[in-house]
Specification:
Shape: elongated
Distance between the termini: 40 Å
Order of helices and strands: HEEEHEEEEEHEE
Number of helices: 3
Helix content: 10-25%
Strand content: 35-45%
Mean pLDDT: 87
Length: about 180
C-alpha cells in the first residue's frame, strides 16, 4: 500500500514538473517601450493622469518568429516593467511619490499593469511591481494604450521624460 502511494505521488510530481517544462518550451518574451512625459505643472501630492500615445505591438512578428500565431497564445503576463528617466539625463526619481500604469485597448477594459508606491529612490531607474493579470487580449491587439497615474512629492522645474520598458512572457499551445 505504501509503495502504491509513493508511486502515485512520484507520478503526480513528475507530471506537474513536466507540464512546467513543456510551458517553458512553448514560452517566449515580447518587449515593448512607451514614453511618458511628466509635466512640470503637475500638482504635488495629488494624483495626475498621463496618457501616452498608442503603443504599437509587434506581436504578430514576434508570434511568427517564435513559430506560433495569436490564436494559439494561451497566456500572457507582464514579467518586468522598468522606468528610466531619459530627459533630463541628470534627474533621479526623488521627485516621485507613486506611479501606477494601466493598459487598455479599444476592445478591452482598462486594467492595472504595474505600480510602485512610497518611492524612495535616488536612481534614474526603478522597477515597478507587476500585477498577475492575464494580458492576452492586449498583446494580441495591434496597439494598446498606457495610462499613467503619478503622484509627485516635490515640484518639477522642468518636464521629465520617462521610458517604460515592458517585458511580457507569452505561452502558446503547440497546435
Amino acid at each position: 500500500m505504501k509503495s502504491k502511494f509513493i508511486a502515485i505521488a512520484l507520478l503526480l510530481s513528475l507530471s506537474l514538473t513536466s507540464c512546467d517544462a513543456v510551458d517553458d518550451l512553448l514560452s517566449f518574451s515580447i518587449s515593448n517601450e512607451a514614453s511618458i512625459k511628466i509635466k512640470s505643472s503637475s500638482p504635488i501630492n495629488l494624483p495626475s493622469e498621463i496618457i501616452t500615445p498608442d503603443v504599437t505591438t509587434n506581436s504578430s512578428a514576434e508570434f511568427k518568429n517564435n513559430k506560433t500565431k495569436a490564436s494559439l497564445v494561451k497566456d500572457v503576463k507582464i514579467r518586468s516593467l522598468k522606468l528610466t528617466i531619459s530627459d533630463p539625463s541628470d534627474k533621479t526619481f526623488t521627485f516621485l511619490k507613486s506611479v501606477h500604469l494601466y493598459i487598455s485597448t479599444t476592445d478591452s477594459d482598462e486594467i492595472q499593469l504595474a505600480y510602485q508606491d512610497n518611492i524612495n529612490s535616488s536612481s534614474s531607474t526603478i522597477d515597478l511591481v507587476c500585477t498577475d493579470a492575464r494580458l492576452d487580449q492586449y498583446i494580441k491587439a495591434d496597439s494598446y494604450k498606457i495610462r499613467t497615474q503619478v503622484t509627485l512629492k516635490e515640484t518639477l522645474t522642468k518636464d521629465v521624460t520617462v521610458k517604460a520598458n515592458m517585458n511580457f512572457r507569452v505561452t502558446a499551445d503547440p497546435f
